[in-house]
Amino acid sequence: MLVAAAVTGAQEEAKVNADAAAIADFNKRVEAYAALHKKVESMLQEPSQDGRPEAVVEHQREFAKLMQKERPNAKAGDLVTKPMRNIMRRLLASVFRGPDGREIKRSILDTFTGNPILQVNSTYPDNVPYSTVPLPILQGLPPLPDAIQYRFVGPRLILLDPHGRLVVDIVEKVFP
Asked: What is the pLDDT of residue 11?
């Protein structure tokens, strides 16, 4: 009986340590992206202050092009590795299975229109609205620097660089 409890305790500790290592790795990857974001941003001039809305859009596009050049081989899983995707799915499942889970899921899917094709290192489609990410989800996921945001696009959770409307990473099938 004591041996079984010790083995179970050791297994749980190993899982916690593996989760902690995956989250630490994720944080390191996110910080590396944020540093690259800052470097690329410093290469650009600020958008014109002449009141033209196009100036902001032009600036976003220029930033996205430079980031794409800096990450030419970017792919899903570069920031959110498989162990981290599993952790995120578990964290999200706990929210969606909670007392307000059904309503939270409905609020996410209410903004979902169509089925846009998203690719890592591509710009977010102009015709697809940004979803809001409910507070219980933000509280459960690791915090992100200002350079990156969590967003839902249907059953996918993406990491988005809002400065260039650039898809940084994609986590598929996040709903339990």
From this structure: 56
Q: With 0-12 CB in 10 A as exposed, 13-18 as middle and 19+ as buried, what is 124?
A: buried
User: Using one digit for the tens of pLDDT, what is the confidence trace for 71-112?
Assistant: 999 999 999 999 999 999 999 999 999 999 999 999 888 877
Q: Report yes or no: 17 and 40 within 8 Å, Cβ to Cβ.
A: no
Q: Which residues contact 1 (CB under 8 A, 6 or more apart)?
A: none
Residue 161 contacts residue 37 (beta carbons within 8 Å) = yes
Count of residues in the chain: 176
Say which residue, 127 or 8, is predicted with more confidence: 127
CA distance 22 to 46: 36
The span from the CA of 79 to the CA of 72, in Å, is 15
